[in-house]
Amino acid sequence: MITNPHTPFSKKLLVTVLSGFIAGTPLAYVQAQPNPNAPSAATPSGPILNQSQLGSLVAPVALYPDSLLAQVLIAATYPLEVAEADNWLRNNAQLTGSAREEALKTQPWDNSVKSLIEFPDALNLMGKDLAWTQKLGDAYLAQPKDLFQAVQTLRAKAQGANNLKSGPQQTVSTQNQDGQKIIVIQPTNPQVIYVPAYNPYLVYGPWPYPGYYPPPFYPYAPSPGGMFFSFGVGLAVGAALWATPHWGSGSVVINNTTYNNFNHGYNNATNMGPNHYGNQSDWKYNPAHRANVPYSNPALNNRYGNINQSHQAATQAARQQSARNYWNQNASPQEKQAAQQTRENAQKAWSNASAQQKQAVQNTTKAVQNNRSTGAPHVNAAPREEFRGGGEMREGGFRR
């Protein structure tokens, strides 16, 4: 049985769901929404989030080691690919080591998303709440320096509550960067990283931002001492971590040597990105990996919404071809026979459809194509429960 998330139904539905998170925000996030009429110096035609709102968004990952945090923020700017990667990892949990690395080569995701496959707890946190992931990525794109400041504020509060300190898993230090004192979190052993698990409502002491709260709390494993902070199993880093926050500017600095090693090790020739030259470089956002997922900030839509449309079309075509190749090479004879029977049934149903039914389908198809050409989300998608049989979605969200 093959497990590949790149089917037309799953991708269309994921885009629809992510678009819906903007149009119909869950109640848990209502209090943290920006005022759409607020002025913004950083994003002239869009709203800004204040430190309380940013703190509530970044609280679940603010205590991650610096490099992992940087790559989580980058990956969050590509929420559709995060959803695909999370689904892929759950369906391919049996793959480890070189077998998993080889299987990942055919996936067209951004390298930041691919890197999180090696840190399943972090990827699962993002995959189980795509609304939060999307808002976190948009906040980083729109206000990177402000978001980094929110991280530092929360780290200081966790440190003051005696919940952030050095130990066998991590080293916590205070450094000076561009005249600013910052709290840095690094793995004690540079080759092994521990992803922390903590309750964001408790780990920072009394929650500092009444009226603005983190995403719904996810169960975590408390440490034996009853603290609000624990660690998962240590994970070998290898080439999977290649980014570091530059706290003063809000940018992310790429270690080019490590990045290039990852780029070559986890991609085939089709998906491989360009090499980075020199010792380091600044990360640059690539809208092509956003697909058709809109932005929650109008200024981001204005800035990126129409960029690389031809590149996005080429990427979509490459993904579809990759899906076809994967199917041809890995589907069992029974699966291929079932697919052929499904096609024949569909052709028969179409032949028997009335003229009115055919016209309705053509009208819907034309409306979808118009929405895609203008970048508008397809709000008339079929109800989610119709896709229960697809093994990927359920009513109310992504199937666990």
What's the arrangement of secondary structure elements?
Layout lengths: L7 H16 L27 H8 L7 H11 L2 H13 L5 H8 L6 H5 L4 H8 L2 H13 L1 H17 L9 E8 L2 E8 L4 E2 L2 E3 L30 E3 L3 E2 L6 E4 L4 E5 H10 L14 E3 L15 H7 L4 H22 L2 H20 L2 H20 L18 E2 L2 E2 L2
Antiparallel strand pairs: 1-2, 3-6, 4-5, 7-8, 8-9, 10-11
Helix pairs in contact: 1-4, 2-9, 3-8, 4-7, 8-9
Fold and architecture overview:
With 400 residues, the chain is mainly alpha-helical. The chain is 44% helix and 10% strand. It contains 14 helices and eleven strands. The strands form five sheets. It has a three-stranded antiparallel sheet. A two-stranded antiparallel sheet has the order 1-2. The radius of gyration is 22 Å and the shape is globular. The chain starts with 7 loop residues before the first helix and ends with a strand. The model is unreliable at 1-9, 23-45, 221-226 and 372-400 (pLDDT under 50).
Supply the helix-strand structural class. Answer: mainly alpha
What percent of residues are in strands?
A: 5-15%
Q: Report strand order across the widest sheet.
A: 7-8-9
- Number of strand elements: 11
Alpha plus pi helix count? 14
Mean pLDDT: 77
Please compute the radius of gyration using only Cα atoms.
22 Å
Largest pleated sheet: 3 strands, antiparallel
Give the helix level as a range of percent. Answer: 40-55%
Distance between the termini: 19 Å
Q: SSE string, helix = H, strand = E? A: HHHHHHHHHEEEEEEEEHEHHHHEE
The low-pLDDT segments are 1-9, 23-45, 221-226, 372-400
**Coarse shape:** globular
